[in-house]
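Interim report, section 4.2 (structural modelling).
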Amino acid sequence: MSWVNAIIQGILVGGLYALFACGLSLMFGVMKVVNLAHGDLAVVAGYIAIGVITVTHIPVLWSFLIVVPVMAVLGYVLQRTILQGALDRSVLATLLVTFGLSVVIENGLLQFFTANTRGIGSGLALVSGSFSIGSIQIGYLPLVIFATAVVVLLGLQYFLSTSRYGRLIRAVADDKEAAQLAGADYRHVFGIAAAVAFGTVALGGIAYGMYAQLAPTTGTDTILLFAFAAVVIGGLGSLWGTLLGGVVLGVAQQIGAQISISDETLAGFIVFLAVLALRPQGLISRGAQS
Amino acid sequence: MSGPPDGERPESGTPLLEVRDLVVHHGQLRALDGISLRVFPGEVYAIIGANGAGKSTLLRTIAGLHSPTAGSVLFDGTDVTGLRPERRARQGIVMVPEGRRLFGSLSVEENLQVGGAFAREGPWTIERVYETFDWMRERRNQAASQLSGGEQQTVAIGRALLANPRVLLLDELSLGLAPVVVQRIYGMLPQILAAGLTVLLVEQDVSQALRVASHIHCLLEGRTTLEGTPTGVSADQVEAAYFGLAGAAPGPAPEGSES
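Predicted structure of the assembly:
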């Protein structure tokens, strides 16, 4: 039964990883930007949420109504300024710039908020509560996070496949010069895509702050790594691949933990390496979806 | 094509599109060396020339995809040389790029929708495109990448038309297509022109260009070697201008050309 439990817990935490991963995947798929500051931006979103909750006393769960738009605007502005500036030079430059951004954010957070860890909404019934089916305990929070991830992915898919800007984002990702010839300013479209990606980053950051604890270094040592692993396992540029990748990563970790608690992270990265070696295009390759 | 008879080019009024002394470099290479041309409303203006003559470079510079080293591009009397391609497209300079360049992961209809996303006011709607190219309607949900070359070329033209262009730039429509398909695509031109359109096209296939054009302009290594109406130039002149045969002087400066 403990194995079944491990698999179920793994699937649920996979939703969290998918929330981390889908923004990373979107930015790579559209702009070819590998955003090394992705995890740090999630942490920034988490800290903003903590600040918003402290100042306005709004219910913890509703903090996303403020944090998501704030991060989306930040995404648009960052894309139109330093990320586009780097893209105009070379794809390699975007790696350097986002790495620099990551270092700046991390040290800025350390400077202003110290290295102490912070949680979001600790003590809430939602965060610590659970229910049981037979001998399996299921936490409310992992279930809510998983459901959120599914809703976000459905929303993203709907946005990309039916809305005017979703269509433009896909067109620009296919051929930005041809999109220009149709009158589309690809820089603006990139900005919109970044805004959407940062919106999902915000949800990831808040979710992680509730699920675990945020510290200035969480972004690079946990969120970015797990996001990368989920994206690579699932398949670059594939939205639903990020959920599959997140779930595979989560299950691998939980099974690893079942064997020995210290093997949790290791097991996840062994699966990551195995996929990279045996099926480098990921479990769902890009052409399979749009 | 009912081009104006020899010697009666609609000279009056401003040209819709004018290129003045255009010089374009690709790195060190001087791809265009002082090209001037004037395209009047309603014309089908064909630029011919061999591979590497600079035809596509000229068209891409007019569309805004290359920046000229010197010279200017005027659209309806206004200098658009500094405008980005998307701004020019929204003003009505719309190009069908070489090699079709459809959005491969989008469906036929989505390609058309993107083409119309920033459209000017005008006669072209998706419905009208479907009426003009009737096979497209039933295959509108198919991915553009699954179409044949000729079908893709037609969708690319439809996509451009949806922007309601004032001048349509066609870059090597015939490239990589079977002659019968090329015939069919050029055969659609009169229908498109009936909606009040000016066309500037680049074509390697000289006989095709002579058949549809009201005015031709031959390039060789980035320079103008011949300009005139298809009926006003002889086959020998075209051949000489196209290949740059020794001793071939630029054809007798035809009416209206400034060089």
